[in-house]
Design goal:
Blueprint (H helix, E strand, L loop, with lengths): L3 E3 L6 E3 L5 H7 L10 H8 L9 E5 L7 H10 L1 H4 L3 E5 L21 E3 L3 H4 L7 E5 L7 E8 L4 E7 L11 E7 L6 H18 L5 E6 L13 E2 L12 E5 L5 E6 L9 E6 L4 H4 L3 E6 L3 H12 L4 H6 L3 H19 L2 E6 L9 H16 L2 H27 L1
Parallel strand pairs: 3-4, 9-10
Antiparallel strand pairs: 1-2, 3-14, 4-6, 5-6, 7-8, 8-9, 10-12, 11-12, 13-14, 15-16
Helix pairs in contact: 8-10, 11-12
Length: about 400
């Protein structure tokens, strides 16, 4: 039995492993009883491979007396420890509260916006803050901070260590709208910010989350999707999360912080990158090199075209014959190659742009700095022209 081996001492014959390790892994059947679900998938992916940030949203109702509990949650509860972002509203912080007092191990100091008593006319309550996990992202830029009588808003842009190719960066906005605010004015402020950031980076997703109370964005931003489906306060959904990607998150309720009457919400990303959703296509293209073009021109130049005229009885038959002959010559002479098209390929990456990238690479290896800079300029110009053309087609 050449294809089988004996297992030690039992007398049973087991099949010999064949094929490469990759083929054996692909053919391996998933073990029965393996845990599934969004939580287990997040743990398997880890912070460095998440397509979108995992977010914990909560209404703290004074962060001063909840820092110790938040620190304990980060230490002992995996949802807090492995969260990419912790967004809190109603922090009730003032200017005299030092930021370092709210440092949390594993997250660091928060990005905060405190209520301005002179602008809002209220000395108590309000305020928002944002904790960002440095294991997921260290590049954080504050884009906007607004404190008005109707809304308190803090917006940041995030460039983590890993994002899918179709997502250049992530915009995250934390808002607090108090119950007696002018909801139309607050929604208009959010809409202006969304349009402003969209003009800066159209491909970047934008997520607006916080305590909205009675405010709704359906009228001003109808294209956004709301992800929180579990009640957050007395059976009502007051803490919301809007985003530009449909079905990006799934919400799970968490225990409130301290004696807060708002439950916390875990927003787990269920978004699938374009590379996993789409199909990989293989396409055969012709290589129109100079030598192949010269050879094709010589073949057509030496062809006796009178043979086609004499053998055809009408113009339609002559046209079909000549076209078929030229196609035959092209297929016989012009070399071809197979290229792979991935669903996350950028539509503006043209052949000229690829050539400029290759020229820059060659110049770098040769040590030609001037040629490298020139290729970089040409590549950036071609990239911008291609993006503008694609955006013009989409808007038209």
């Amino acid at each position: 039995m050449a294809s089988r081996r004996r297992s030690g001492g039992i007398g049973l014959e087991a099949p010999v492993r064949t094929g490469s390790p990759r083929q054996r892994t692909a053919a391996r059947v998933r073990r029965r009883g393996r845990r599934g679900g969004v939580h287990q998938r997040l743990r398997r992916l880890g912070l460095r491979r998440l397509p979108l940030p995992s977010i914990i949203l909560g209404n703290a109702q004074s962060l001063r007396n909840k820092v110790d509990e938040l620190q304990a949650n980060v230490k002992h509860i995996s949802e807090y420890r492995d969260a990419c972002v912790i967004a809190l509203t109603e922090t009730w912080l003032k200017d005299y509260d030092p930021t370092q007092d709210f440092d949390i191990d594993g997250f660091g100091q928060p990005y905060r916006l405190d209520r301005d008593a002179q602008i809002t006319g209220k000395s108590l309550g309000g305020g928002v803050c944002l904790y960002v996990n440095p294991r997921w992202c260290k590049s954080v830029k504050i884009r906007e901070s607004i404190c008005s009588p109707h809304i308190e808003l803090l917006s940041v842009s995030l460039r983590p260590f890993y994002l899918p190719r179709e997502i250049p960066q992530v915009f995250l906005t934390v808002v607090y709208i108090h119950p007696r605010a002018d909801t139309a004015e607050a929604a208009s402020t959010i809409a202006k910010l969304v349009h402003q950031l969209q003009n800066k980076c159209p491909d970047a997703p934008h997520f607006i989350l916080g305590d909205f109370n009675t405010c709704s964005l359906k009228q001003h931003l109808g294209h956004l999707h709301q992800y929180v489906k579990c009640p957050t306060r007395h059976g009502k959904i007051l803490d919301l999360c809007y985003g530009t990607i449909k079905g990006a998150y799934k919400s799970f309720p968490l225990a409130p912080l301290g004696f807060s009457d708002h439950s916390c919400v875990l927003l787990a990303p269920v978004y699938q990158p374009a590379l996993k959703k789409g199909k990989v296509e293989c396409k055969e293209v012709a290589l129109w090199t100079e030598s192949a073009i010269r050879e094709l021109n010589g073949c057509l130049h030496n062809t006796n075209w009178d043979v086609f005229k004499d053998s055809c009885t009408n113009l339609d038959e002559l046209t079909d014959t000549v076209v078929n002959y030229i196609t035959f010559c092209e297929e016989m002479i012009i070399p071809r190659k197979t290229i792979t098209l991935y669903p996350n390929n950028k539509p503006w990456v043209s052949k000229s742009l690829k050539n400029s990238i290759n020229k820059k690479k060659i110049a770098y290896y040769q040590g030609d700095i001037s040629e490298q800079k020139e290729a970089q300029k040409i590549g950036e110009k071609g990239n911008q022209i291609g993006q503008n053309a694609v955006q013009g087609q989409g808007s038209g």
